[in-house]
User: Fold this.
Amino acid sequence: MANLDDLYREIILDHYRTPRNRGELPPPAVRTEGYNPLCGDELVVYLDIHDGVLVDIKLTGHGCSISQASSSMMSAAVKGKTVDEVRAAIERFKQLMTVHESSLDGDAEPPVADIHTMGELAALQGVVKFPVRIKCATLAWNTLSQGLDDTYGVQGTGSK
Ligand code: ZN
Assistant:
């Protein structure tokens, strides 16, 4: 699977070198800060939500290549989606990271995320081989989740 590994590495490097959706959004866009103290990654996510649709998303911040690439990939994956779809994407990604985490004990074979269902995000599953980096990859998604919670309340999808 060396070719697939190469492809995944290329996807991550591409997002790191050419991050998507960099910048800020003016109020009333939701502004949410995320921080990963294990690595020092900092991220600010701006969400512009109208009628239950994430119309626009912008990111600022700095950190390691994994956190930067992951946040860029996250923004590209959720922009233009409904809040329900965004929540589902967050769950899928967290599951990808969590299942692998628990499978490190060795009793279960980790499910392999498929590039056809996960898209570019599948590239990040290699990160779980390095548990210390998982928080780098999930920072963007946790910050996004926090931004939705700030907007709608926990687990609400909202008619706001
Ligand atoms: Zn990091």
Summary: The helical segments are 2-17, 65-78, 83-103, 115-118, 134-152.
